[in-house]
């Protein structure tokens, strides 16, 4: 089986509320290769958690509803899978780790019993064997004296240890895909570093793909192969992790990076606040806060994902028509949607074309990358300068990327 | 010191009793804050950082006497506030205000924003309703909201806006000092920067002193003039922000700084990893409280093994000495009929044999004893054979450079002449 492990195309998840329909996820597309780590990053309210929970339908239905799009996991379409099949899938092939380990574990059962229970749900093994496996798993996730701690109650453990237990539970079914939703946000930095390292080791050992949901760009830089930046239910930018940090294409990504402490001028905040979820603005959803917004940004739909040219324009022989990098001659404004339009064209053909069009699959939903606009307006000069080198590293990301496109 | 600090905290202590049973017999003490000293100059922003459970918030609440400290003094503008009676304390509270972490839970949902901001004014005796209203409207505009927001309710505001209102409320009584406990950690990054720059503006406009408590080193670095690093109820390092961050002189500060994920994918995985969790504050380790996790812990003289091996050896030593080692359970886990020294060695990642012959002999003998079931004797043996000053005596606070202090044995020329060099930690100059 070639192709990506998980392929999310034009996913739309909405919630029916008293104030109207909240389109929490509104046309999101991305994919994850086997053994790859993809980060979904965004502020609270951007729809990143809802996206991750839509995959195995963990969202409450109703009021929630997956209103459109497709989620293909290893060739299987998940959106119309019956609940019983989904239940088999959850925990065995797709496992979740959540932010707060305290709430994930049952306080009245010993942790070993909870892990053994998970094992026995998915496999036909005896109690003794399951307990034995539980000890092995606890040992594997780095709990000292696993043989003793297996009989602890959750309250006898620290936050970091509880998160290790939750990870052990997630590993019990040997999943192909681990969905980790802010797994380190509730932990201290020193413990966070331990957990990130653990996830990295486990990924290599179990050959798992990880969908990592986080708001913390520092964590993204630490773990990601590829990154999907979300804002108000839409994908703003999708890129290889190096491209994202060294050559951010979308003004929103640039603004997020600029307000990180210790990088750029840390006091630059993004003015304004997230748009109303029930009544998002026309045009690009970021335009009310965007420093580069022009009238064209304020009407119509969210711009489609356009390829972002490489600042050095070396790596691209594959045709890169839009906004040819630094100072391409401004042609005539072309208003029609180009072929790189995956939010409007839900069919997969358009999506694949985008991926092939750019070597690194770096795309941004910004009008400036459309033909006829001057992309230099939104280029982040500083980032391009300190980025410098163009080698994509030896990470598996680039390889998966190319393989996935065919 | 030449400057005249607004707040001087000296040996502040807050111990909580652990009680048991109907008669509340005291069975132990949680030393949440255990002898903390620092000062805050006029118009200065001082940071207090540390991991959760290190006592930073308790230090804050007890220095304002929101909780009664169990020891130490806090001098505010020259007066000892721990001596204050209720009336004096109320007057003091007008001069020292607090901003809390969660803006949603620090407002009464049934009070309008205007009423909430005016509440401190009412408490402190401004009974004229129209004047209160005028003050509130002025304050809301100063923090970047509009005067008409006074009639709206907390749920109508976003987290960042609520935190602005909290700043307005703290300013309402015109204080000299504001204590902000994790003021931005509940907010998104893009909003954090906003609120931090508001605090900065407010400080220069009103000439306030700030104590900022945070677990986020990035935030502290951005706004603080000086910083104190706390670990398990004690301050381990203090100094000007740029010096502490640029040239950390305590292994804990170093580890803490290097654990922060850097937003640069080309520098991933370069952090110093700290093993284990923060120890229990009701039973803190002897000697230096950080020695149980310290990567730079000082080895016994003449021990010829790598630092990581020494770290593992010390882990084994501490566990055995505490009686917290169960070779039987290790045997069960490995499906062995009876505990063996090799299993213990493996559990602690100790090489077999150790490169140091003498140490190897002691270790082998101790492991044999432990496998035979006498863990206590094994512990004693190890403690005797592998002494370290870090576990024996508490380090003193030493000056590293003018105004930069660290509490670590690596700065003691008698104990560890060169050991700190490998960690970029220099021996203190005599002063």
TrEMBL record, chain B:
Family membership noted in the UniProt record: Belongs to the ABC transporter superfamily.
Organism name: Haloglomus irregulare
Name the UniProt record assigns to this protein: Peptide ABC transporter ATP-binding protein
Segments forming a coiled coil: none
Claim: Endoplasmic reticulum is one of the keywords in the record: no
Basic and acidic residues bias (residue ranges): 394-421
InterPro entries found in the cross-reference section: AAA+_ATPase, ABC_transp_ATP-bind, ABC_transporter-like_ATP-bd, ABC_transporter-like_CS, Oligopep_ABC_C, P-loop_NTPase
Any single GO BP term: peptide transport
Annotated ABC transporter domain residues: 7-257
Region annotation Disordered: where it falls in the sequence: 261-285, 389-431
Signal peptide, first to last residue: none
């Amino acid at each position: 089986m070639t192709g990506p492990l998980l392929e999310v195309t034009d996913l739309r998840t909405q919630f029916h509320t008293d104030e109207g329909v909240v389109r929490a996820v509104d046309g999101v597309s991305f994919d994850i290769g086997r053994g790859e780590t993809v980060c979904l990053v965004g502020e609270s309210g951007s729809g990143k958690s809802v996206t991750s929970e839509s995959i195995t339908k963990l969202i409450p239905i109703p009021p929630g509803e997956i209103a459109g799009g497709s989620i293909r996991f290893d060739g299987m379409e998940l959106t119309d899978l019956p609940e019983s099949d989904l239940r088999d899938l959850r925990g065995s092939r797709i496992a979740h780790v959540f932010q707060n380990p305290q709430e994930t574990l049952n306080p009245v059962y010993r942790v070993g019993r909870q892990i053994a229970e998970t094992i026995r749900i998915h496999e036909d093994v005896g109690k003794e064997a399951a307990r034995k496996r539980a000890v092995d798993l606890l040992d594997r996730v780095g709990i000292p004296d696993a043989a003793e701690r297996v009989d602890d109650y959750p309250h006898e453990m620290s936050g970091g240890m509880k998160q290790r237990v939750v990870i052990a539970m997630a590993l019990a079914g040997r999943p192909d895909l681990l969905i980790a939703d802010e797994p380190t946000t509730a932990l201290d930095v020193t413990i966070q570093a331990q957990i990130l390292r653990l996830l990295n080791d486990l990924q290599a050992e179990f050959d798992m793909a990880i969908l990592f949901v986080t708001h913390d760009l520092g964590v993204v830089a630490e773990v990601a192969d590829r990154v999907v930046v979300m804002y108000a239910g839409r994908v703003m930018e999708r890129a290889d992790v190096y491209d994202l940090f060294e050559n951010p294409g979308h003004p929103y990504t640039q603004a997020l990076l600029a307000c990180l402490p210790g990088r750029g001028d840390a006091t630059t905040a993004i003015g304004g606040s997230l748009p109303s979820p029930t009544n998002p603005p026309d045009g690009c959803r970021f335009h009310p806060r965007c420093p580069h917004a022009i009238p064209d940004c304020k009407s119509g739909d969210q711009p489609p994902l356009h390829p972002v040219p490489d600042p050095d324009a070396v790596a691209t022989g594959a045709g890169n028509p839009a906004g040819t990098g630094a100072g391409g001659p401004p042609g005539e404004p072309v208003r029609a949607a180009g072929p790189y339009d995956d939010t409007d064209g839900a069919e997969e053909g358009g999506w694949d074309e985008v991926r092939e069009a750019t070597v690194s699959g770096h795309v941004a939903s910004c009008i400036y990358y459309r033909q006829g606009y001057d992309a230099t307006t939104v280029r982040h000069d500083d980032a391009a300068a300190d980025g410098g080198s163009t080698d994509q590293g030896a990470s598996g990301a680039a390889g998966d990327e190319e393989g996935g496109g065919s | 010191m030449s400057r005249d600090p607004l707040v001087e905290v000296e040996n502040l202590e807050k111990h909580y009793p652990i009680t048991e049973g109907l008669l509340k017999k005291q069975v132990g003490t949680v030393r949440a804050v255990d002898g903390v000293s620092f000062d805050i100059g006029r118009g200065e922003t001082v940071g207090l950082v540390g991991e959760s459970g290190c006592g930073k918030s308790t230090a804050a609440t007890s220095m304002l006497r929101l909780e009664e400290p169990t020891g130490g003094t806090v001098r505010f503008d020259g007066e000892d506030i721990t001596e204050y009676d209720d009336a004096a304390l109320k007057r003091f509270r007008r001069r020292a205000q607090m901003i809390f972490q969660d803006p949603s839970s620090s407002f009464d949902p049934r009070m309008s924003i205007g009423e909430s901001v005016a509440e401190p004014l009412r408490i402190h005796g401004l009974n004229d309703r129209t004047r209160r209203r005028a003050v509130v409207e002025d304050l809301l505009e100063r923090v970047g909201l509009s005067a008409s927001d006074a009639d709206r309710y907390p749920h109508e505001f976003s987290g960042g806006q609520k935190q602005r209102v909290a700043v307005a409320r703290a300013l309402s009584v015109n204080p000299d000092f504001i204590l902000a406990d994790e003021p931005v950690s509940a907010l998104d990054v893009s909003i954090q920067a906003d609120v931090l720059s508001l605090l900065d503006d407010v400080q220069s406009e009103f000439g306030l002193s700030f104590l900022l408590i945070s677990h986020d080193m990035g935030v502290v670095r951005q706004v603080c003039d000086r910083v104190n690093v706390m670990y398990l109820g004690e301050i381990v390092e203090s100094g000007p922000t740029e010096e502490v961050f640029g040239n950390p002189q305590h292994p804990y500060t170093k580890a803490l700084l290097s654990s922060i994920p850097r937003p640069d994918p080309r520098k991933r995985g370069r952090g110093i990893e700290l093993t284990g969790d923060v120890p229990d504050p009701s039973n803190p380790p002897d000697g230096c409280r950080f020695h149980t996790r310290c990567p730079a812990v000082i080895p016994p003289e003449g021990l010829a093994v790598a630092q990581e091996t020494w770290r593992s050896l010390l882990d084994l030593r501490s566990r055995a000495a505490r009686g917290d080692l169960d070779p039987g359970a290790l045997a069960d886990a490995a499906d062995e009929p009876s505990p063996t020294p090799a299993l213990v060695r493996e559990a602690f990642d100790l090489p077999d044999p150790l490169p140091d012959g003498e140490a190897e002999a002691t270790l082998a003998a101790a492991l044999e004893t432990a496998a035979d079931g006498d863990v206590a004797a094994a512990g004693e043996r190890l403690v005797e054979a592998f002494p370290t000053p870090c576990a024996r005596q508490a380090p003193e606070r030493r000056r590293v450079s003018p105004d930069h202090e660290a509490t670590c044995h690596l700065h003691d020329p008698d104990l560890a002449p060169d050991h700190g060099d490998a960690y970029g930690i220099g021996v203190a100059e005599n002063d």
